[in-house]
């Protein structure tokens, strides 16, 4: 639009043979009109692209919901039955039941997460945390996407994964854990709670002093680099809760 306005304005000046306020005003108005038309054309193109993505997203979501209903009525119910019966029978059947329970959790996480439109440079935190779901780890997330810059989402998920690793290492293989994601207007909070024996007072400071930096670096260091905070609440026999809070980018 700007180039066309310059060409028309130059031709107008050439034909008139002199530069007056009228010819200058006409050229300026042509430039403004060309810029506005170009901007409106770009907005129209972007709106059409977003509409197409929205239509594709709706179609993909409907298809996923249809598959989820079918799987729930068949595969998931069978796996849940195998897990329950295997636990009741014990022995090798209990191991088969445990494996069936793990697969059930994986399938539920796959069909339970809504499809989101791809946004350049962002990631849905729900998808990253959903990978940690298992019969012993329950992941609760919002129904809507929790979009963060890809690097921020990856680091926050890694910090949560380190907290879950600590649960498995220090609380035993049978300890249960719960992961809760909360999205606020200005921040995202990820809470990891377990039913383990808890952390004795001063234990974290002793671990850091002895060079064991799992909590200090893998969890607190990651969140601190993101501009967030970590709050650890624990007590002997009361389990442990690790709260990761990261501000949302403006």
Question: Describe it for me?
Answer:
The protein is elongated and about 100 Å long. Helix 1 packs antiparallel against helix 2, helix 2 packs antiparallel against helix 3 and helix 5 runs antiparallel to helix 7. About 2% of the residues have low confidence. The strands form two sheets. Strands 2-4-5-7-6 form a five-stranded mixed beta sheet. It has a two-stranded antiparallel sheet with strand order 1-3. The chain folds into two domains: 117 residues, no CATH class; 131 residues, Histidine kinase-like ATPase, C-terminal domain (Heat Shock Protein 90, 2-Layer Sandwich). Helix content is 60%, strand content 16%. The longest helix has 69 residues. It is built from seven helices and seven strands, in the order αααβαββαββααββ. It starts with a helix and ends with a strand. It is of the alpha+beta class.
Major sheet = 5 strands, mixed
- CATH homologous superfamily of the largest domain? Histidine kinase-like ATPase, C-terminal domain
Q: Based on DSSP secondary structure assignment, what is the total number of beta strands?
A: 7
Percent strand:
15-25%
How many helical stretches? 7
Summed over residues and divided by their number, the pLDDT gives a mean of 81
| Apparent shape | elongated
| Name of the top-level CATH class of the largest domain | Alpha Beta
Write out the strand line-up for the largest beta sheet, numbering strands in chain order. Answer: 2-4-5-7-6
In percent, how helical is the residue content?
55-70%
At CATH's second level, what is the architecture of the largest domain? Answer: 2-Layer Sandwich
Fill in the CATH topology of the largest domain. Answer: Heat Shock Protein 90
């Amino acid at each position: 639009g700007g180039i066309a306005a310059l060409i028309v304005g130059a031709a107008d000046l050439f034909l008139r043979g002199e530069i007056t306020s009228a010819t200058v005003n006409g050229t300026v108005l042509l430039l403004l009109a060309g810029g506005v038309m170009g901007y409106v054309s770009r907005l129209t193109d972007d709106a059409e692209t977003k509409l197409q993505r929205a239509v594709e997203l709706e179609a993909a979501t409907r298809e996923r919901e249809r598959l989820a209903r079918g799987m729930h009525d068949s595969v998931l119910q069978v796996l849940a039955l195998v897990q329950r019966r295997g636990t009741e029978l014990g022995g090798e059947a209990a191991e088969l039941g445990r494996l069936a329970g793990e697969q059930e959790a994986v399938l539920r996480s796959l069909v339970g997460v809504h499809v989101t439109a791809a946004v350049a440079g962002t990631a849905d935190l729900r998808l990253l945390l959903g990978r940690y779901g298992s019969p012993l780890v329950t992941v609760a997330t919002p129904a809507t996407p929790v979009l963060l810059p890809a690097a921020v989402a990856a680091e926050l998920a890694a910090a949560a994964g380190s907290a879950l690793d600590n649960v498995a290492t220090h609380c035993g293989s049978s300890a249960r854990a719960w992961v809760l994601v909360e999205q606020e207007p200005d921040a995202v909070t990820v809470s990891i709670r377990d039913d383990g024996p808890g952390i004795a007072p001063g234990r974290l400071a002793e671990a850091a002093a002895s060079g064991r930096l799992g909590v200090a670096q893998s969890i607190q260091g990651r969140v601190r680099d993101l501009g967030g905070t970590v709050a650890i609440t624990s007590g002997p026999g009361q389990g442990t809760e690790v709260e990761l809070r990261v501000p949302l980018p403006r």
